[in-house]
Design a protein that fits this description.
The protein is an alpha+beta fold and 245 residues long. It is built from three helices and 15 strands.
Amino acid sequence: MDSCSHYQRGCQLLAPCCNEFFSCRFCHDEVHYENQRDVKKQHKMDRHSVKVIKCKACGLEQSLNKECSGCNAVMGEYFCSKCALFDSGPKLNIYHCDKCGICRKGNSEEYFHCDNCNGCLHISMKDNHACREGAFSGNCAVCLDDIFTSRKACTPMRCGHFIHRSCLSYMVKNGQFRCPVCLKTVVDLDEEAMDKMIQENPMPEEYRDTKVKIHCLDCQANSTVNFHFIGHKCPSCNSYNTSKD
């Protein structure tokens, strides 16, 4: 299995779980997990357990090395013995985080590991992200892929829950402005536009004094406000992200 759409490398990895050679763990998982119909036979490859590789140029089986011990072919311009990761891609920008225990995309100088979130974040978020214990644990609430090991760029929302950037963009484009997990607002909403819309659409006379109890999904405050069919504004934080009790 020499073809690989995930990495450019000059070797194959021997998967200890099934004793077969694959270009990478993703290629292995496509065969033995994603496309394996027998649930009892499904398994994923542990990157850290790989000890043997095979050079694609000469076919020599050997231990983990950046260069083939037989023909000196370069297995990967980037090489991590801890993760058995080889890559010679055109946009090579990878670093290993010991605290994460895996290699991540990016320049190590531009990222830091948050012990509480248990993952790496861009340095620009060091003092201004919503820190949440174990935030990198679990799956993306949109595509359900694992956040911690994902190869796609992830970002924390205001509430502290993590999501793929592409999934967040998809949400917003489709009019979903709440976190799928906690329902808090994830982007700025135009409260002034909502105020104007309500002013321009007054309730019929018989309903103008009707009161309704609301719960704010952003600040968690409970309030009693005038009923309106367009929406209800939280008097505590001015958010329209509310629900009727």
